[in-house]
Amino acid sequence: MDSKLHDDLIKDLSSMINDSEDYNVIIQVGENHNTKEFRIHSNILRARSPYFRKQLSAKWGSNNHSKFKRDHITVFKKSHISPNVFEIILKYIYTGEADFYKKSGRDIFEVLVTSNEFLLEKLYNCVQDHLIEKQSIWIKQNFNYVFYTVFKLVNCKKMQDYCIECMSEDSQLFNEKNFSFLDKDNLYDLLKRENLQIEEIVIWEYLIKWGIEQTPGLRNKGNDRDKWNDHDYEALKETISQFIPLIRFVEISPADFFDRVRPYKDVIPFHIYEEVAEFYYKNTMSKTTILPPRTGKFKIESNIIKPKLANIIASWIEKKDENNLPLKDKYSFDLLYCGSKDGFNPKSFRVKCNHQGPCLVLVKKKSTKIYGGYNPIGFTNTYRRYCPTNDSFIFSFENSEDTQNMKISRVNSKHTNRAIYEHRINGFNFGNAFYMKGDCVFFNNSGIYDNVDNVLDLNTSPIPEEIEVLKISLL
Q: Distance (Å, rounded) from C-alpha 220 to C-alpha 226?
């Protein structure tokens, strides 16, 4: 059979979209100033869409304001669907083709929602594949909107799985609200993943809050354990019992275990709690119920910043957008120097940090704000010498959880030969803009780094609360 016959069929059907002759259905879409009216043939709608087959065959309800008759024409009002989206849907209904060329991520996503409403199964599956393969950046930039929508859609398994994968790989997408939105099956799928990029104690606390919300009788009491009785603990234990074995207790610090896990010991099966306690007392790994640490998890040895901030810094190192972060298992951040432990003086700094390769300097003063600098060439203790590099930068975060108001200042392209200054009286020195001298840390607008005034608080006290230096290595 000549394939051109099929092409001619599609061409002829496509021409009917703009041909108003013999139409008997009108679909009005959009709202406000963005509206459009489409004239359609009911036989096409019935043949292609189970939704319209039912709607066009059903008896008319007297209170149905979205569907009515006008001069023997059936009219549907779909104000929640934009004209751009409906044009894609209509072309698919008439021709079986879906054209996403030069369409925005939002329009394509709305095609997914609308194809679910109209029960267009093949288009529904096709759009899921396209979004995952071609619109991953848009999904991450609009993650909350996508997340809450796909978990309300029937049979949207591909997109749901993709959202869970994104959450497991990107700690910025993993938050309490998203966690609480998951049902049991999706939550189990998330917690069993080896590559979850979030602190285990946070996972534990989210699980407890999720369990409270899912347990009748506990929702009104919330996390106020003074109001709980033995029945409440038993009820919560039953709600989260299948998830407890998935928690990697070995990744929770002894202090966090004592303060944040132990108060809920009654919801943990006795044999698991005993083995966890033995691990903390004896540092011996259980051979039965306690799972080992998650593999490929983003590790950072710091008390100043959290992994999600380290991941943003990693994106700056690679000169990528913060919304397109590198893989979490690409770098290790190993602690070389800690001022409160090793001493706030350049000598101790140099003993720990010289000749260690690329380093990250972190400074916390007597506030929540965090300052830092990236030295890609490492510290050498060369006497009174400027060292050139194009890749150094200084930065600040408002606090250890801040992922919105961070600021970065890269070395000025005209002064890359003065990016790092080596002198024995300094611990670190980023072009005399950000440096350690004696037991103090100073800020200065030296002109070597751009927009320093926006990154560093030039009038702040020079006395640091903590200084850390982390060695950055590729894994």
A: 13
